[in-house]
């Protein structure tokens, strides 16, 4: 049993190191100008990149825009990337920056154009149950950063350190944002949960 | 990944609610299309003249730096050779008598001024005698 686990572990590690080597090869090829290699990197990372952007921006459409912007920035900055570093962490930092830029631009635009309008952040036509509706409302009460931190941590499974790096905040701040966001959600959803 | 969750049970309805709100679109067709859109934008960037400019900027800067360095070195060497040659010429040229070193034109001017001050011209023999006596 122990031997089998060891083999599994070693297989897993081999698979992981193989994947890293493949990714490194793709990065180097993309840096040399291969658009096929860059397309493979897009294919590998676009779902996770979308998740990072989606946690920061308010709508699915904005997340799509941010993902495209992020990959474009990554493509332009590819020659400055050192292939020995983890590509995912570098890419997700770019994605987070693209998303934060988009949020800032949206805020400026909304302040200029619709000063009296309260944005409806989550458009979900399929939403029907009370909890989801209340959850939506509760999420709008959190700060942008608290919302991003709770989604990145509790939905996407990023660590405090990774979140801090992506959002450009210290790890301790990410931890305390998460704590406050959870406390606020618990408070706001207490009655809904007891009704269920 | 931290094991501290919003509620003790991972399957808690709030976490599930959050996950469904933030769920990424399912279906490969969506991701294929997104990939195509991203690559189309990348291709636009690749084809732009600024990319070509950007690509050549670094080699051009390096070439310019090398040229500047080479030109500087050449100028320095030329200047040094010129100096060496001047010193060599000075040392190798034969000794010149002191009298020839005075510019004749200057000497003529000075004589004319002296003659003018003493009120005689060069044609008068007395004047020339006077000046020779002096």
Describe this structure in words.
The complex is a heterodimer of chains A (196) and B (134). Chain A contains eight helices and no strands. With 196 residues, chain A is mainly α. Chain B has helices at residues 13-21, 28-47, 49-92, 98-101, 104-117, 125-133. Chain B contains six helices and no strands. By secondary structure, chain B is mainly α. In chain B, 75% of the residues lie in helices and 0% in strands. The radius of gyration of chain B is 47 Å and the shape is rod-shaped. Classes of the chains: A mainly alpha (196), B mainly alpha (134). The interface between A and B is medium-sized, with 42 and 27 residues.
Structure characteristics:
heterodimer, A: 196 residues, mainly alpha, 79% helix, B: 134 residues, 6 helices, 0% strand, rod-shaped, disordered N terminus
Helix content of chain A: over 70%
Radius of gyration of chain B: 47 Å
Q: How far apart are the termini of chain A?
A: 43 Å
The parts of chain B where pLDDT drops under 50 for at least 5 residues are: 1-5
Q: How would you classify the quaternary structure?
A: heterodimer
Helix and strand string of chain A, N-terminal first?
HHHHHHHH
**Coarse morphology of chain A:** globular
Structural class computed from helices and strand pairing of chain A: mainly alpha
Describe the main β-sheet of chain A briefly.
none
Structural classification of chain B: mainly alpha
Order of helices and strands of chain B: HHHHHH
Largest interface: A-B, 42 and 27 residues
N-end to C-end Cα span of chain B: 115 Å
Global geometry of chain B:
rod-shaped
Low-confidence stretches of chain A: 1-9, 115-128
Q: Please state the average pLDDT score of chain A.
A: 82
How many strands of chain A?
0
Provide a compact summary of the structure.
The complex is a heterodimer of chains A (196) and B (134). By secondary structure, chain A is mainly alpha-helical.
